[in-house]
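Subject: Predicted fold for RNA polymerase factor sigma-54, 537 residues

User T.R. writes:
Posting the sequence so we have a shared reference for the thread.
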Amino acid sequence: MQRLDLKQLLSQRLSPQQIQFIKLLQIPTAELETRIKEEMEVNPALEEGDSDDADERDDSDADDTPEADDPNDSLDSDDTTLDEDFSGPSEVSDDSAGPDDYADERPEPAAEVEALGIDNDNHEIDISDYVNDDEIAGYKMQGDGPGDEEERDMPLADTSGSLQDSLLDQLHFAQLDELGQAIGEQLIGSIDGDGYIRRDLAAIANDLAFSQNIEASEAEIERVLHVIQQFDPPGIAARDLPECLLLQLERRPQEEATINAERILTETFDEFTKKHYQRIQQKLDLEDDELKEAVAVILKLNPKPGGSGPMGGGKGSAGGAQYLMPDFILTNDNGELNLTLNARNAPELRVSRDYREMLQTYDKAAKKDQKMKEAVSFVKQKLDSAKWFIDAIRQRQNTLLRTMSAIVERQREFFLTGDDSKLRPMILKDIAQAIGMDISTISRVANSKSIQTEHGIYPLKFFFSEGIATDSGEDASSREVKSILRDLIGNEKKDHPLSDDKLEKMLNARGYNIARRTVAKYREQLNIPVARLRKEL
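User M.O. replies:
I've generated the structure tokens; pasting them so everyone works from the same file.
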């Protein structure tokens, strides 16, 4: 039996334009340029252009255009209307966005934006929407600092080399036979990113047999391994940490401290890792001064030699030296803070003039057959996509500036002094309410962005912290508590370091109501070991 039901359903979905804006918002400046190039490759209607080209185009089109459109309407057509603000009111729930204090609400993506009015009924094409939009054709971002091309390009160091390339170059000068060269290349290819070979020699022998049809014994492989271990950087191709450190000690002058250091690593390595210095003294019969000098030598060694090569990426990977490109630049002009976007956040984009002229040709054509309509439909689609992309870049720029301006206003004392104790408690919700945007929008901005100040480069997540209750009734930032905790540990007696219980009591005495487990959590987040491992001679 057939049945007909009537059902009413209310749902909220993201349009392609909204999804594009969200994706552009969350990528950092270093990836924005790549994303723009990708868009230009798939959309020929999107072009790069400077303001001079835009001015010439405006002058030449002024005589041909009977009436200039309203600049405020240049981004909109009968088919598409983009809202200026992508954020809308929504219900939110608390959720932690970081390991300790980057905590706030993260609603569904649909709550971040308001529905856009899209009319997909494209039976008739209004040519005027595309041929009279010179403002977009010569669009240039505003408020991004210097516009000179030489100042826009940020020079980066040459990182073309790699650790693997360096080792292979040294292998070619090692005067090995053909078999030794093949074994050496296999060993170098087996080196991890930190400079170690953790695969068994038997497994490497199997790799040579199966992949290159080369039979080599473990003794032959170990002979070549010892040759590679003499390459730079010192300690490379070790199979474990003691061997890595011993390889480095072999290259040092064989003084008494170096010899004692070798004895510590070979005979009492477990005791050394646990800092049981008394046991080491008893087992090796060392005086206090001798032990102290030997430990000082060991502490100067590099436990990860893979990071000390030209690239340090091991295996020749593209990883290694990483360069942080700030998204914002904050300058202090006699107490006046000036915030600008990195110039790479403001590319000069325009809609292709050739594609707009195609639509003009269609408008003037006397005969409009099916092929012509299909071609115009394709051109119109690319023009819409280019407009949406330019508008998304513009909205990204405005959202970044609004969010960062609110952060600077709230953390003004810190940006003026650089003192961590001046940081105020701040969560995502505070900034969202201040600028009238959704919390998930603020989260996307803060998640992968950074700012360059006179005190250094900081990730935006650094400025978000939870509040710690104090005896005065006011909340203190967890960053402030961490700063004090770091100072207390830095000033402790090295032979009698402070335990978490003592640190808790000292913080409570200063008016911070904090528990011991919170002290332990903050200490771990600061990468500070427990008291036993902080002990020094």
